[in-house]
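Entry for the shared binder. Reason: the reviewer on the internal report wants the predicted structure included alongside the sequence.
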Amino acid sequence: MDDERVKAFRLLKPPCVELSQTALRYKVRKSNAKDLLKCLERLTETLLAVSRSLDAKLADYVFFPLSHVFSESKGLPPRLLEHALSCLRLLIRQGWRDRLSSEVGKQLLILLAFLAGGSATDSKSKQVDEDVAAIALDCTTSLFHSFGASSLGTQGAISPENVPLLGHTLTVILDAISNTSAIKVRLAACTSLNGLIDAMADEDALRNFFPGIVSCLTRVLSSGIRSKTPWKILQACIQLFDQILRKILADDALSSAVVPVRTSTAGESPTNSWIKATASQVKVALSTVLPLRYHDRDDVQEALFTLCLSILTECRAALGDSTSMILEALVALSSHAALEGSRRRSQRLQQIFASNLDLLDVLKDSLYDWTVALPRVITSNDETKQTRTLEQLSTALQLLSAHDTDMRTFNDLVASNLRSGVASAIQLSSTHAITSVASGSAEISRVLQSAPSSRGDRIFGPVIFDSTSQGNLMAGLQMLVKQFESSAMQRADRNFMAHA
């Protein structure tokens, strides 16, 4: 291995010396950006060739000439900075790995935050090239994976003097997620945030960053229905929401950390009052995110389904007040019978009910609300809402029937509102049909009188439910009635066999 390191050093020395000399000449305007670019290209090729032989000492050696380049980053062309950052990323991943010192790590965080987000004080330096920002954020991710955010302190706790540095880095990342138009930059920022959350062993410090992270993710996700936010961004933000909730509000994390008395301060575990206040804010955030259950992309639906399952199974203690709306979202995500993803989600949801029967009572409450609202929904002009309501009722009945739930007191209400819903649909369609027939009766009479006689059967269109949407509505109601009848008969058969 020593021989390989020596060989790698000998190969790296010429391009490193050349880059260092060229960068120093560039500072006094005795060389130009093209010269620097050629040096960086040669260094990149050499680093790739010896990447398996790199270690922390060789990384320190190569970083020295690179630091001269980064010190002039304000006036360098984007392409040149991309090459320099590519070299840095290789040093982090293959050279320093998990042996990066805290001091170097802090210097790199400051540098990468500047390259990804520009100057925090100089508005002229705020504009950043998209490609440079994306690779700088990618380097930040590698940095988090390499030394972990907890290396900015001792024994897993982040030193107070380093909190502002991490806070600024986080601000740059969140700004890239929510305020940048380039998809590759936003995705790189999402990946970087994932690395930061995963690397932070100091949950007290992460708890301080929690409100800002949730606020940013909520802002992006709540606009996903109204705007044309790319589905990959929505998927990544939902996954980040899931990650941060499980790390801060999971039952396992809170059971050993809660302080029942006094108000929590920096560096202390959360109090019950903090958990309650935070859960209330998260519930509000979730209410603006859950409409994404109707997103047309299955990848987004699957990410949201996983988030909801995490809340139900891992965050019950803190987010118990959100159970009802989470469960309604899960049912909606499992209600698209024509989609393979929805069928898989329905099966997973049945498994959750099997392990937690208390959720069946919550589902019955939701089914009650949907059933009571059925006549009103049917008489509305919102065809989308009609379809969704019928699908959700059907899925809820299937879930309850699969677990042999006692619904004897519930059956009458379901049957009554189904009858009211069907009657409302027929009355609405009949009124429309009669009006249409009356307005066209003269034309119909003329056509019938002039038509040649025939012994064959004539085929007439439907008098009621003549439109496609009305026909779909009645088909959905018929399916629901048959499902309800089948469910009732199955329960009757089971009762009969039990007493036979």
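Summary line for the report: Residues 261-267, 436-441 have pLDDT under 50 and may be disordered.
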